[in-house]
Amino acid sequence: MAMPTIHLADAGLTLQGREGESITATLLRAGFMMRLACRGGGCGLCRVRVDSGRTVYSAAIADSALPVEERDKGIVLACLAVPADDVTITVPPEAHLRCIAPQITPYAIATTQ
Fold first, then answer.
1. Distance (Å, rounded) from C-alpha 74 to C-alpha 89?
2. The domain spanning residue 28 has which CATH number?
3. Using alpha carbons only, what angle is made at residue 84 by residues 100 and 26, rounded to the nearest 5 degrees?
4. What range does the domain containing 54 cover?
5. Does pTM top 0.90 for this prediction?
6. What is the rounded distance in angstroms from the CA atom of residue 1 to the CA atom of residue 22?
């Protein structure tokens, strides 16, 4: 089975995921940081929009963390969302996505576009 990729639409980067790895875990492994808190699907701070591709959740999520209306718009909780195939995501500005370990990032990037 091919490992999924996560394309960061705004940054123009594609990161290589690992089987069963959440979007947040891939970002952290690649040297990126974003606004996080509980990492368990309860706080809802790690929202991202999936523009293409599919994700599945590694655990149940509460409606209070991610209302159905947001889910219907493609919003997922990155801490629990695991790509089922290649995905393209948009990270909202309020998530403050930034590269904190540039020396690691080149090794995690599958392609740059």
1. 9
2. 3.10.20.30
3. 10
4. 5-112
5. no
6. 17
Tokens of 27: 């970002």
Annotate the chain with DSSP letters as a single string. Answer: -PPPEEEETTTTEEEE--TT--HHHHHHHTTEE---S-SSSSS-TTEEEEEES-EEESS---TTTS-HHHHTTTEEETTTEEESS-EEEE--GGG--EES-TTTHHHHEEEE-
From first to last of its 113 residues, the chain has per-residue pLDDT tens of 578 999 999 888 899 999 999 999 999 998 899 988 877 777 888 999 999 999 998 778 877 888 999 999 999 999 999 999 999 999 999 999 988 876 555 555 555 44
Length of the chain: 113
